[in-house]
Amino acid sequence: MPVRDVLHDLDTLTITFTAEFAATANRVWEVYTNPRQLERWFGPPTYPATFVDHDLRPGGRATYFMTSPEGEKFGGWWEFTTVEAPSHLAFDDGFADADLHPVDTMPVSHNDYRFSEDSGTTTVVTVSTYDSAEALQKVLDMGVLDGATMSINQIDALLRA
Q1: Which of 22, 32, 66, 74 could form a disulfide with 43 if both were Cys (CB 3.0 to 4.6 A apart)?
Q2: Which domain holds residue 113?
């Protein structure tokens, strides 16, 4: 399992995931940034993602939806703030409505992904920061820790393919 550690801290308003992959940083970067690769792992196993737009540059935006087993769609958006291949990716992440417009009443996270390679093994440390303890608690109550862990743990199969 790639996920080695998951921490959440209501004082610092953060969730931190540490994952390790038996692949180069370039290959792991591709899995995290190529929309067709993202569609193969992003989201819990029974909620596959479809990326509609994906403009990977600072100021660029991605929109996507995840589809439940019953066919219900759940939208989201990213706005990229830092893109430094293959070591640093940062973006804001929020919820979207059926037309993929941001939902202002839902939490937004500010995400910082750091990729470091050592002898062909890449570690990814992801820190998601929320604007308030209430926003962080809301996503915790929605199951973000389990959902993200299940999602990230799908990457190994993709890397072996």
Answers
A1: 66
A2: 3-160
